[in-house]
Design brief:
Elements lengths: L2 H21 L3 H8 L3 H8 L7 H10 L4 H5 L13 H9 L8 H7 L1 H9 L9 E2 H12 L7 H12 L3 E8 L5 E10 L2
Antiparallel strand pairs: 1-3, 2-3
Helix pairs in contact: 2-3, 7-8, 8-10
Length: 188
């Protein structure tokens, strides 16, 4: 795979992520909606599988668009796809399966929030201190965590390989660096 192919596959993975976000579905919910396995969807999201024209056409039929529009990165995906009859009926049919919908899953699990929402944002492209991550989550998502919930979840994400971490000097409130070493987190 050339670098150009890899970059294009990453952009298509982001495109699929965007569609799933608009629909408000998790990987397992989206996989059920389109009739594919979650591992197939994860493979595309991790750029290990290609986002084929056939799959794009299949998804396009489910959300009343064409596969060509899905694969054309110059065309934005309409927010109205969430109102398509097939999406509405899927949400009604599976309303009692909270794992299928991102709004309920991220509210239930801090680990899911980190791996599916926070990692997907561009905020963690550069190493960030815990207090920066807390402030970002509170300002962007109106979420706060009690005690060391967030730091434990971030360390767990590092163990799972979702995030990277290293020790750096602590950033003091005045902007200077202190002597104590603390973790910073980012995605590769």
């Amino acid at each position: 795979m050339t670098n150009q192919d890899k970059t294009y596959n990453e952009l298509l993975a982001n495109r699929l992520r965007e569609i799933m976000n608009i629909l408000g579905m998790t990987v397992s919910g989206f996989a059920e909606f389109i009739g594919r396995s979650p591992s197939h969807i994860y493979g595309i999201l991790q750029s290990k599988r290609t986002f084929s024209h056939a799959l794009a056409d299949h998804i396009g039929k489910k959300i009343n668009t064409t596969g060509a529009k899905i694969l054309n990165l110059n065309i934005s995906i309409s927010q109205n796809i969430a109102k398509v009859e097939s999406v509405v009926s899927f949400k009604e049919e599976y309303t009692n399966v909270p794992e299928y919908f991102s709004d309920t899953k991220n509210d239930r699990s801090i680990d899911a929030f980190i791996s599916e929402v926070l990692v997907g944002s561009s905020f963690l492209k550069t190493p960030r201190y815990l207090n920066e991550i807390e402030a970002f989550i509170e300002s962007q998502y109106s979420k706060t965590y009690i005690g060391d919930q967030l730091s434990k979840a971030l360390r767990y994400s590092v163990r799972k390989g979702v995030l990277l971490s290293e020790k750096r000097s602590i950033m003091l409130t005045n902007g200077n660096l202190g002597k104590r070493q603390v973790d910073v987190y980012w995605v590769s």
